[in-house]
Amino acid sequence: MLAFTASPEHAALDPGEGDLRWIDELLDTMQSAVWGWADLDLELFEAVLLDGFGWTIECAPDDPARVARVLDVFLSFAAREYGAPHAPACCEYLRSPAAVDDIARWVRPFDDLCSDPLFAALSAPYNWCDGRCERCPLASRCPVHNFDLEPLRPVSADDREGVRAAALAAAHSIAARQVLEALEDRAGPGRPREPEPPAAARLRHSCREYAFAVIALRDALADVQPERDLGELRADAMLVAVKGGRVAGYLSDMGALEDEAALMDGVPNLLLIERIMAEIERCLADRSQVPGFASAYRAARDELRDLLRPHLRCVPSCYRDEIRSRVLIGGAPSPFSVSP
Length: 340
Ligand code: SF4
Prior knowledge:
The chain is mainly alpha-helical. Helices cover about 65% and strands about 0% of the residues.
């Protein structure tokens, strides 16, 4: 920050009182999430606006255009001084009218967002959706959709690398998790990064194996499935792997979804996995006699079901009721809002 305040960019900005607060917020989020300049690409930067600032600011900016300008100038400085590789793309976005609109609409205290029924009780719906905005009733209200981020579902990747790609494509979801962790760290004495509880490692592994098993079916199904269905099958499988990792990240040492973040975000993602697995099963049901239909799929599915069963049994009924009532008023994201 000192280097910035001594820079020509800062001098040209003619800084007003409070301007540096937005830069502090950005640096603070980056530090909490352990992001370097090489990590902060446009997608993550938008995630910071969307999910990061709201956790700590006390009021929405009076002048969204000014916030865009301040961040633009700071990132221009970061590009020159630190070689931040994605800063020019972020600056280009910040100079667009869309950025000012996004800041006006979405940069506000998270407490305000929580007073919106869409965001209360459960984490924001874009954190537990399937990314199929074209069939989602929330599309017109959804910041992720309206930020025009890459879709959560990478429909072209179809192998183990693809699962990794899916995790990257879900970067804004990952960012949300990191911000939650950062908030917990700030609230407490700074939790050390503990090794993953065994139950979390098992769940993460099982979700990935399940995804690989579904993806491996494609050769067996290629002759009987339209290409589009196969693409959706792969995307669904990858979503299970990505969301499984997310839910695993919330499991306590006792292997349960217990704390507030786990309930607000882990539970709806658990229900999403349940829903997606049911969709996959339905899709495959009448094809199980196809030669080559792998027993590996059944084994992976059954193992994952066994792991999920106790967690699903513990989901308080009010969570399912909440999603059901949102479905009725068109407030639940895809896939909950679409008929099976
Ligand atoms: S599927 Fe719905 S909730 Fe998810 S990103 Fe798209 S519009 Fe938003």
